[in-house]
Automatic annotation (TrEMBL):
Keywords linked to the UniProt accession: Periplasm, Signal
Family annotation (Pfam families): DctP
Tagged with keyword Signal: yes
Locations listed in the record: Periplasm
Protein origin, superkingdom: Bacteria
Entry annotated with the keyword Transferase: no
CDD domains per UniProt: PBP2_TRAP_SBP_like_3
Name listed for the protein in its UniProt record: TRAP transporter substrate-binding protein
Amino acid sequence: MFNISYKSLVGAVAVTVLGTAAFAENWRGWNIHPEGYPNTTAMDAFAAALEEKTGGEITLQMFHGGTLGSQPDAVEQVRAGALEIGNFNLGPIGPIVPAANVVSLPFIFKDVPHMFRVLEGEGGAAIAAGMAEKGLVPLAWYDAGARSFYNGDRPINTPADVVGMKVRVMNNDLFTGMINEMGGNASPMAFAEVYQALKTGVVDGAENNWPSYESTGHFEVAGYYSLSQHLIIPECICINADTYAALSDDMKAAVTEAAQESAIMQRDLWAQREAASRKAVEEAGVVVNEVADKAPFQAAMGPVYEAYFESNPDLRPLVELIQATE
Ligand code: GTR
C-alpha cells in the first residue's frame, strides 16, 4: 500500500517537472538599433508583454545594437532557429522571399499609410505566407518611414545628380539596380560599416530614413539630405516558423497580441522620432533639400520593375494589387 502511493507520488512530481520544462521557453531576439530608438523601446515592451501574457512561460532576451551580427546573418539565424526573434527590415529579406521583395520596389507605395493598408489586406497576407514558407513568420509590422538620399557635397534633385556617385545600399539586387539605373555605382554594405565608409570616401552617399540618418551619426559625414523618398519599406517582428508552429493556440494568440501591441507603440514612437531626428540634424547644420519633381526618378525605375517581373512573372498581380490599393 505504502509502496503504491509512494510510487504514484514520485510519478506525479516527475510529470509536473517535465511538464514545466517542456513549456518554459527562453527566446533570444535580434535588433540592430541602439537604446532609445523606437524599435528598441518597442522590442523591450514586446519582451515584457510576452512574459506577462504567457504567465512567464515565454521569456525573451533582446540583444540590441546589432551585437549578434548584421541583418542578413541574423535573418539566417532566425530561419535556422539559432535565434527565435528578429526585428527585421524587409529589404534584406527580399532576396530570400520573392513575394516580400515587392515592398522593396522603388516608389511602390504612395506613402506610409498606403503601405499599412496593403499590409493589412490581401497583399500583406501573400507577403506573410511567402515569408512563413521560408521559415520566418511575421507577427506584426513596424514603421520605418521613407528612405531618402544623403551625401557629402551636393543636393540631389534629379537622377542626373546621382551619375558617378558611389551609394551604399542594403543587400538586395533591387537596390543595386535602382542606383545603377540612375547612373550611380551601388555598393551593398552592412549597416554598421556605413559611417566609416562615408567618412573615408569609400562611398559618397547612402540612403535612409530620418531616425537612422541621425542615430548612426551619418549626418555628421554626409550633410546633404534630399527628400527623394524612393523607398518605403516595412519592418517586422519575425519569429522562427518552427518555434511558432510548436506553440499551443493560446500561446500563439498571446505572442501575436504582444507583438501587435508593440507595433502600436512603435508606430507612435516612430512619428515622434522622425520629427525629433529631422529637427536635430537641421540644427546641426544639415542642408535639407525638397525634391520638387520625383517623376524622373520614378521613370528611371522601369528596368528595375521589368527585371523583377522577369524573374518573378507570377508576382505581377501582387504588384498590380498594391498599385490598385487606394
Ligand atoms: C534602417 C533599418 C535597419 C537597417 C538599416 C540599413 O532604417 O531600420 O533595419 O535595414 O536601415 O540601412 O541597413
